[in-house]
Amino acid sequence: MKKLIEEKDGKLYYNGYCLVDLAKRFGTPLTITFLDVIKERILSLKDAFLKSKNEVNYDGNFYYLNANKANYGKDEIESAFIYSDGLETSSFYDLVLSLKMYEKYPEFKDKLIVCNGLKPDDYLDAIALAHSKGYNIITIIDDIYEYEYLKKKDINLRIGFRIHLSSLYEPEVKDDRFGLMDDEINYILDDVKNTKLILDTIHYHQRGFDFEEDKFFKNFDIAFAYYIKAKKLYDSVKYFDFGGGTPLPIEGEYDYDAYTKAILAHVKDLCIKNDVKQPDLIGENGKYSQKDSTVNIYKVVGTKNTGQYPWYIVDSSLLIAMPEMYALGEPILVKPINNLNEKMVEARLAGITCDCDDVYFDKEKGYFLIPECDDDYIALLGTGSYQNSMNGKGGVHHCMLPEEKDVIIYNKNGTELVKVRKELQTIENIYDLLNIKH
Ligand SMILES: Cc1ncc(COP(=O)(O)O)c(C=O)c1O
């Protein structure tokens, strides 16, 4: 897998681009998304699965779905859609957006659409409509209400069910409201034969941790027992969907060959022991391909001394740029990007908002190392997943700071293309959003 971060001549490069050059070319505050990172991640995971499938002689396929919830950017979903095997949706609105993508690319009509999340009637009706139009759509039942509602439609809709696995997630810390309980699953397994619904997918989602091998296989085995049970009852069962949570390469290093091989060998072994056919596996990946596609770049616009460490103040809000880090402790790399051969100073970063929580430093060390220079820039590396949906992209932000300029870079037929998706937000735009006359 391509190594994204490099340092040369005192400057930080990301995905082959000198970040300070990009800052000077487009101006700051700036968000840059490299669509090719999304493509590369998807293709390399699919390659690793294919290689491992051949090595372990696995008798099924792997389908890569893009979990749209990670980033609702049209360009990001489109890039993922082209190279993946389908989309995973989490709401009615997400499904509507996904279907627009399928309409744009009729040649991909057969790619999967897997519908997750709790489903009110509008979502269920839209699923049934998409099915009637010939889309390759699977509804993952998350609540018995959904099952009963779809049953009444009396159509050959393909369904799966999500398994509730909260007991293994240190319940007091991370209770999980998703999925069906054992008795609900047994009810469906008993009842579905009396309906027109077709059971073809068994699903669980790891949630919350990035591939801790012990936990992964412990949960996997509990969930997989439902595949074995369902497969013995219904030949229509063919997919085992293990959700998201694919590990990210730390600084470019992660052995995806070993990861995919371990999963396929494990599933094969379980199937042989239990005398069931090996399923097609589905992965619903969000963070894995989206997170590292985006970086934010800021200029240090002032310094202040009010305590043990000097404050280096950047020209945007750190809190807006990485809400997941502040709210959920999600790690995001923050680094100076120029003057890296100069003397470093122990400092703390602050956004230019009037918000005392809009600060950043290494929690263990208590400071952030930054060159002691007048023209410093910093970057946040890996803000491409979940930040946009948490920070209200396109809206009004705290202290009415303008949303930063939004640029995408990608390759088309070997030519590099750059598109400014949005200029720096204007005061008029902010007033319009607030319904203020100007
Ligand atoms: C059902 C389901 N699938 C996939 C994902 C994507 O997970 P990740 O972004 O860790 O790959 C999520 C994330 O919440 C999810 O709830």
Task: Describe the structure concisely for a colleague.
With 438 residues, the protein is of the alpha/beta class. The chain has helices at 19-26, 35-56, 74-83, 92-104, 121-132, 144-153, 182-191, 213-233, 256-274, 287-290, 318-321, 323-328, 387-390, 427-433; strands at 5-8, 11-14, 17-18, 30-34, 62-67, 86-89, 112-115, 136-141, 158-162, 198-203, 239-241, 280-285, 294-304, 311-314, 333-336, 344-350, 359-360, 368-371, 377-381, 405-412, 415-422. The strands form 3 sheets. Strands 4, 13, 14, 15, 16, 17, 18, 19, 20 and 21 form a 10-stranded mixed beta sheet that branches. Strands 5-6-7-8-9-10-11-12 form an 8-stranded parallel barrel, surrounded by 6 helices. Strands 1-2-3 form a 3-stranded antiparallel beta sheet.
CATH class label of the largest domain: Alpha Beta
Mean pLDDT: 94
What is bound: which ligands? pyridoxal-5'-phosphate
CATH homologous superfamily grouping of the largest domain: Alanine racemase
Q: Low-confidence runs (pLDDT<50, min 5 residues)?
A: none
Report the count of strand segments: 21
What is CATH's topology name of the largest domain?
TIM Barrel
Query: What is the gyration radius calculated from CA atoms?
Result: 24 Å
Percent of residues in beta strands? 15-25%
Label the overall shape: globular
Largest β sheet strand count, sense and barrel closure: 10 strands, mixed
> What would you say the CATH architecture of the largest domain is?
Alpha-Beta Barrel
Give the count of helical stretches: 14
How many distinct domains?
A: 2
* End-to-end C-alpha gap: 51 Å
What share of residues is helical? 25-40%
